[in-house]
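Message: I would value a second opinion on how I read folds in token form. Give me a protein, with the fold worked out from its sequence. Write it directly below this note and I will take it from there.
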Amino acid sequence: MSRAGRGHDPVSSAPTPAATNEGIAEPLAVEELGSFHIGGREATLSGLDTRELRVTPAAPAIEIDPNGEFEVEQMYVQYVRLASPRARYPLLMWHGGGLSGVTWETTPDGRPGWMNLFLRYGHDVYVSDAVERGRASWARFPEIFATEPFFRSKQEAWEGFRIGPSWTGDPGERIPYPDSQFPVASFDRFAKQLVPRWATNDPCTQSAYDELVRHAGPCVILAHSQGAVFALRAAAAAPETVKAVVVLEPGGAPDPRHEDISAMRNTPVLCVWGDHVEDHEVWSDLRRSCERYWHAQSDQGGIADTIDLPEEGIRGNSHLIMMDRNSDLIAARVQQWLESRGFMK
């Protein structure tokens, strides 16, 4: 652990027995699994033109009326509750930008994802599709969502997620980093996960996440990339409910020069960084801005830990740490931190 909050010893880099894959291969004893939608509001549309549409080839054309009342800006949540959880609080798993809860379910090369791993570590889990993503669904734009969606290309994902330094479009010519931990042979399968996103929906997304925290009760949040900002703000808004926040490669953090983070003084936070951050201008800038938050958290006497994987000799991790070939190892490091902070029974 490369950094710890004031008055707290860093955690050893050697996993404890409970934070390895030993003993977690038994069948899961699940008490309940299900899903729900949360957040959102009713929106009313009027004055829009109707049109005729043939919804299936064999059916006659019908009139489609876009006017009426609609539920919009909701979030989708899938949950799994164990019969005998060993963690003190459920783990809320929040995805990054242009992604969905699939992030946590299964790796692109078919290995169990972190949802499965943390269930086996003894956590109840809640995996969400944020507002506008996946099963949360869209709303009309510009009538409800203020702007049109934008989409991430495969080249942007390859380079922006730091899988490799260059892209030609030809699978035989894509150049990964020599030490890349991402399963590059499965990159095209990963790209099928990419979903549209909107640049104008942060307020309603934050509102839905805040409502999820209230619904779940005392909890720990594990967030990736864009989800980190929502997680840190949700924790600051409910410091008695959010017991800890773990962020993987945060895509930003509240700026302590402009936002009051004093409510986070008693909330432990952990940040995990992969490799080649300094090789990428955007990510090196983002890391510096995130470290401003981590320093402020530490300066106010809070716990602000960082796992810098390259600094620990673990090389080649991409922005998609939970999908990399060594993802089980990194999950074990996160689990070790949760154990060290007293979040297991």
Notes: The longest strand covers residues 30-45. The mean pLDDT is 92. The domain at 17-45+64-340 is CATH 3.40.50.1820 (Rossmann fold).
